[in-house]
Amino acid sequence: MPPSQEIAQLGIVVVIVLLIVFYGGTMLMTLGIGRKRENADGYMTAGNRIGFGISAASMTATWIWASSMYASVTAGYTYGVSGPIHYGLWGALMILFIYPFGKRIRAVAPRAHTLAEVMYARHGRSSQLMLAGSNVLGSLISLTSNFIAGGALIAMLSPLSFGTGILIVAGGVLLYTLWSGFRASVLTDFAQVLCMLGAAVVVIPVIFFAAGGPGMFEAGVAAGSVTPQQQDFLSSEAFLNQGAPYIAAVLAYAIGNQTIAQRLFAVREDLIKPTFITATVGYGATVIGVGMLGVMALYLGITPLDGDVNNLLPQMAATYLPWALLALAFLMIIGALSSTADSDLSALSSIVMADVYGQSVGKDKANPRTMLLIGRITMIVATGAALFFATSQFNILDLLVFVGALWGCLVFPVIASFYWKKVTNMAFTVSVIAALVVFLPVRFEWVSLTGVLALPIEVLATVGIGVVLGIMAFGFFGLRVGVGVGIAATLAAAPFTLFFLRDYTVLSASLVAYAVSFLVCWALSVRSKQRFDFATIRRLTGDFDTGETPVTGAPADDDSSRRPGDGTPAHARD
Q1: Coil, strand or helix at 532
Q2: Residue stretches of the chain with pLDDT short of 70
Q3: Among 94, 273, 309, 494, which residue's CB has the most CB atoms within a 10 Å radius?
Q4: Under DSSP, is residue 50 helix (H, G, I), strand (E, B) or coil?
Q5: Phi-psi category of 251—alpha, beta or left, where left has phi over 0 and alpha has psi -120 to 50?
Q6: 383 plus 404 within the same structural domain
Q7: According to DSSP H, which parts of 32-124 are helical?
Q8: 318 and 421 co-located in one domain
Q9: Cα distance from N-terminal residue to C-terminal residue, the chain
Q10: What pLDDT does residue 3 have?
């Protein structure tokens, strides 16, 4: 029998005290780095010299957001034992896949602030706006989902309403992030990740044994609470509906997400590899472990409160934990959502500071004080926008998969732009637009995947499988292996995917985004006569505060490198 839906609450006084302690503590930490005359570059990337401990903790905390915890629990409840594994394992591996590409990105643009800033130097305004625009959308969605998680948690564990909860979380995060920006984010991440990992180690086993221990699984099967697919570690249903779309989504997150890129530009260049390997292990263990709470809820026959799966994580904690550990679980979730929400605010401010203001007036003419003001205003506006969207209470898992697939349109053009001299601005722009034109109708089922239309979509999706696996292989083993894996994967998958993928819309749409962007970008670039000089990127990116050449020995930037009138690099002309 499922447990009673009567759950414990911490009470309004306890919740308020916990929130004051948490956000007050983070605010006190950031006061140590606040200055009356803040540095604009430090506000965005902390001087590009963050050490291993802070950078690894920050990367782990940013990737372990409340949304990933909630979504992993949802995956466990929906797909059974393999759900959290598909969610956590692939997410962890995508962190690992960042570092080979990250090393190349830092080598090309050692003192950049955003990927969009690098795309401006590589191609011009249109590619910059595409990457910056997608990151504004992605960070707003991420910020919204974290506010939703916080509002749901506070509403469940106290008499406070959901609306009051999201206001408290938004205000708390904005309070400690506003003054010092990215530096406040990475400093508080260290404390937040210790809180998250420590709480997870204690909370998950306690809930497991309080809920019945191993006996709950036998009882769940006997009660008919689970299907054979939900009991299977190798569930095809879980892989096709959860695992495969998420592989495509998180690869796009790894390459296109400014919160990740910001940490890539901030960490010391020689520490990129150990930072991302450490974050891989920390993320995978924590998120898979938390996701098992969803599996427990499934076997116990628990119904989510108000029919909202976003409630499952706090519901399980409130049902089975004693008061003190419930408070610890509360802080774990608050720490997870805050660590990513402050990263989203920092990412959004950097995009507006560097890509909207900085590039519009020129790196050498940008006023650092104006940049800081713009960055802080951006954080305030973004918080207000996310609060507005949070009132809709979207399904967090759906939000994550959607924005990841959306970024999939950009993955190949972005990666190719760091390695292939022949990629042009036209190839980048047209390939992304073409991928969006195909992705959106498929993803939202504006077109029916039946009859003659289904087969071309399946062919493109099959090519997309090759593109995803080829990109992964290329990152670690080079071009020849990457091309070989991509071709082999496409041919091997074709007998199984044709006349089959039409039943899996989310997966098909994600793969189509990769395929179309790859095919169009390759077709428009392969015959190009452009031979881009990657040293140009070093001249066009760098510190805003000093205006100095960012790399010793690199030629100074001058007006001749830009197209007259619009600030676009002359080399980006097609």
Answers
A1: coil
A2: 1-8, 32-38, 66-67, 361-364, 393-406, 545-574
A3: 94
A4: strand
A5: alpha
A6: no
A7: 40-45, 52-63, 66-79, 82-108, 115-122
A8: no
A9: 67
A10: 52
